[in-house]
Amino acid sequence: MDFLLLVKALLPLFIYNIVFMAEKNKIVGGSKPNYSYALAGLAKRVQNPNGTWSFKILWGRVFIAFILFMALLWGAISSAIYCIFKYGRDYDEMTFYQALIAPLDMQAHRERIGEYNARKAKEYIKERKYREAYMSLANAVGRSPKNIEARQMLAEFNLSFGRPDIALEIMEVGLIYATENTKYIRLYMRLLIDQNEDKRLVLVAERLLSKGNIKNPEVVAYLAMSLSSIYALHGNYDKSKEYLVKYKLDKTLPGILRLSKNEWEQGNRDAAIKVIADNFDYAHNKEPLYSLLVNYYTVMKDLDKARQYSMLRSIENPFSLEQRMEYLNLLKKSGDVENLKADLDKLFNQYKNNNKGMLYLANYAADNGDVELMRKIYDTAITNNFSIAPYCLLSLETMLTNGEYKAASDFAEEILKDKPMWIKRYEDVLSCLRAIAYYGIGNNNMADILLRDVVKRGTCSPKVLVATARRLDNLGGTLMAHRLLENTVDRYPRHQLALARLVQMEIKIGNSTNLEKHVLKLLQMRRPSRELIEDARRKLASDRFIFTRDRGRILAEIDGLIKNNTSFDLGGESESDRITDSDEPLDF
Asked: Which domains does the chain have, with CATH numbers?
C-alpha cells in the first residue's frame, strides 16, 4: 500500500520527462526546427523570419515543472518523515498516508505520535519495563501536552523516584487542560499540600473557583475542600467554614469532619463532638466519624468511650484492619493484657496467610517493641514466601524499640551478607536503622559514618531523617541529632516537622545562633503544635536566651498565637520514633 502511494507520487515526473523528450526531438516538416530549448526546456530561442533570435519563457511548462518539483519535494519529505518515525523512532503505527499529510499539520502529527507513546507506556508498565515506560511517557507529554492521563502517570513516576518537585512542575503545566478531571485535580492538590505549597494552592484554587466555568461538581468540591483545609491549617477557621458553607459541603462527610476538627483545634472539645452528633445522619459512611471520635476520647484519656466507639466502627466495617489495630492499641493503653493477648493471637491466626494483614501486625510489633510477635510474623512471612524486605526492616525497628541494639546490629550484618536485591531501594532506611543500632552499642564512629553517607546521597525522606534524629537524641546523641536535623532543614526547607524538631533541639541545647530565624520561619508556616510553642515561650523567656536576637519579636508572635488559640491541634506533631514509618508505607 505504501509502495503504491510512492509510485503515484513519482508518476508525474516520469510523464513530464517523456513528454519533454518527445517534444525536444520533434522535427517540423522533416527539416531542422527553427527554435531550440533552453533552461531545461522551460524556455526556447526562436529564429524570427528576418534571421534574428528571440528568447521566450514557456510559462505553461514552468508551472508544470513547479508543480512536479513540489510534488517531488513533498514526496521526498514525506518519505523522510515516514522512515524517521517508522524505523528511527519505532512508531509502528506510521503509514505513508500519515507521512504525506504530516507537513500540512505537524502539530497534529506530533499529537498522534504522543498518543501512541502513551499507549506504549501502558504496555511497558504491564510488562514491568519501567524504564521504557518512563521514556515513552516523557515523549507522550512532550508531543501531546493535552494528554492529561500520560501527564499524571509521568508525575506519579517522579513521585516514586522521590522527586515531588518535578512531579508538581509536570502537573502544573498541564493544569489548563485538566480543570474538569477529578483525578488530576486531586493529585495536584495533594502534591501542593504535601510540599507545603499553601500559597500556591490558595492562589490556584481560588482562581479556578472564581472563574465559575468548571462543570464537574467533584472538582469544585475538591477545590473548596482543599481551601478549607489549608485555611484551617493556618488557624483561619472562619475562612475554612466559609468555603464549606458556600459550596454546600458542610453536610457532607469531609465537611463534617473538617468542621469538627476546626472546633477541636480551637480547644472546643464539646463543640467538636457535638458537630459529629448533630450531623451524624448526613454521612452515609459513618466509619470515619467513629474513627475521629476514638481519637478524641483517646486524647481525653477516656479509653472506655474510645473502645466503645471503636467497636461501633467495627460494626460499620467488619473487615477493617485499621479498626482492628486501633482496638489493639486501645487495649494496650488501657492495660487489658488478657484481652490484648487473645486478640493478637486471633488476629495472627486469621491473617497468617495474608501479606497485608501480616504487615499491619508487623507495624504494631514495631510500634510496641514486641520482639516475640515480630519473630513469629517474620517466620510466617518466610514460610509463605512474602516479599521479605518490609519484614526485615520492621524486625530491625522492633529490636531498636525494645532496646536490643546488639541483636539489631547483628541482624543488619546478616542482611548485608546475603545481599538481597531490595537493599538498594531501601539503602537509606537500612543505613539509618544500622546507625541507631551501632550508636546503641557504643560504636559512635560507625553510626556517624553511616549517617554522613545518607546525607551525602541526598535521597532519604525527611520523615526518616527526623525519626532517626529523635532516636539518637533519646540515646544521648544530641549533637549528632542536631547536625542531622540541620542538614534535613537545609535540604528540605519547607518540611515543617523537621524545622519544629530543630527548634526544639536548639532550645534544648541552648544554641541560639540561628534560633530566631528558625522560630520565626516556623511561626509563618502551618499551625505548630501548642506544646512546642508553649515550651519555646517558656524557655525563651528565661535568662538563658537573654541575648537571643529578636527575642522580643519572637515572644510577641508566640503570645499572639496562644492568645488567638490557633494552635490546639489533635495530638500535635507526630511523636513517632519509627524510622520505617516513611512517607511511603512498606506495603509491597
From this structure: 2-98 (no CATH), 179-284 (1.25.40), 352-459 (1.25.40), 461-588 (1.25.40)
**Are residues 244 and 256 in contact, defined by beta-carbon separation less than 8 angstroms?**
no
What is the rounded CA–CA span in Å between residue 512 and residue 517?
A: 10
**pTM score, whole prediction:** 0.77
- Contact yes or no for 143/163 (Cβ under 8 A): no
Which cell goes with 472? 539518637
pLDDT in tens, 332-377: 999 999 999 999 999 999 999 999 999 999 999 999 999 999 999 9
- Kindly report the number of other CB atoms within 10 A of residue 259's CB atom: 26
In the numeric block, the cell 542531622 is attached to 484
Output 75-83 pairs: Cβ under 8 A, ≥24 positions apart: 75/6, 75/9, 75/10, 77/103, 78/9, 78/102, 78/103, 79/6, 81/109, 82/2
What is the 3-class SS of 259-279, one letter each residue? Answer: HHHHHHHCCCHHHHHHHHHHC
Residue 140 makes CB contacts below 8 A (sequence gap 6+) with: 114, 115, 117, 118, 121, 147, 150, 154
Alpha-carbon distance 486 to 468, whole Å?
Answer: 13
CA 191/CA 197 separation, integer angstroms: 8
* pLDDT tens column, 28-38: 444 455 777 67
Q: Which residues contact 31 (CB under 8 A, 6 or more apart)?
A: none
- CA-closest candidate to residue 507, choices 560, 468, 466, 544: 544
The answer to whether the CB of 137 falls within 8 A of the CB of 121 is yes
Q: Are 154 and 171 in contact (CB under 8 A)?
A: no
Position 137 pLDDT exceeds 80: yes
Cα–Cα dist 222/174, whole Å: 18
Q: DSSP character for 570? A: S
Does residue 327 contact residue 311 with C-beta atoms inside 8 Å? yes
Cβ–Cβ contacts within 10 Å for residue 182, how many? 14
